[in-house]
């Protein structure tokens, strides 16, 4: 997975959904609960790659 996202530092909502294989409502739930860190720029969410890696690492430890 790291190879897929290594080329970009910040991903859009759609790219995050594709990488994590999640739906739109799950994406918003992860953002709202703080499990996935991101920010809104205009009307679009942006998520740093580091945030996705941290989320996946935490999920792998469960």
**First-residue to last-residue Cα separation:** 19 Å
Total E-strand runs: 3
Q: Give the overall shape.
A: globular
Helix content: 55-70%
Mean pLDDT over all positions? 90
Number of helices: 4
Description:
It is a single chain. With 62 residues, this protein is an alpha+beta fold. Helix content is 56%, strand content 18%. It has a three-stranded antiparallel sheet with strand order 1-3-2. The two termini are 19 Å apart. The model has no long low-confidence stretch (mean pLDDT 90).
Any chance you could write out the topology, listing elements then pairs?
Blueprint: H1 2-5, E1 10-12, H2 13-20, H3 24-33, E2 39-41, E3 44-48, H4 49-61
Antiparallel strand pairs: 1-3, 2-3
Descriptive labels:
three-stranded antiparallel sheet, 62 residues, 3 strands, 56% helix, 4 helices, alpha+beta
Give a brief description.
The protein has 62 residues and is of the alpha+beta class. The chain is built from 4 helices and 3 strands, in the order H-E-H-H-E-E-H.
């Amino acid at each position: 997975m790291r190879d897929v996202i290594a080329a970009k530092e910040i991903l859009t909502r759609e790219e995050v959904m594709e990488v994590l294989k999640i739906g739109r409502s799950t994406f918003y739930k992860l953002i709202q609960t703080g499990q996935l860190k991101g920010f809104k720029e205009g009307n679009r969410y942006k998520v740093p790659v580091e945030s996705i890696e941290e989320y996946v690492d935490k999920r792998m430890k469960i």
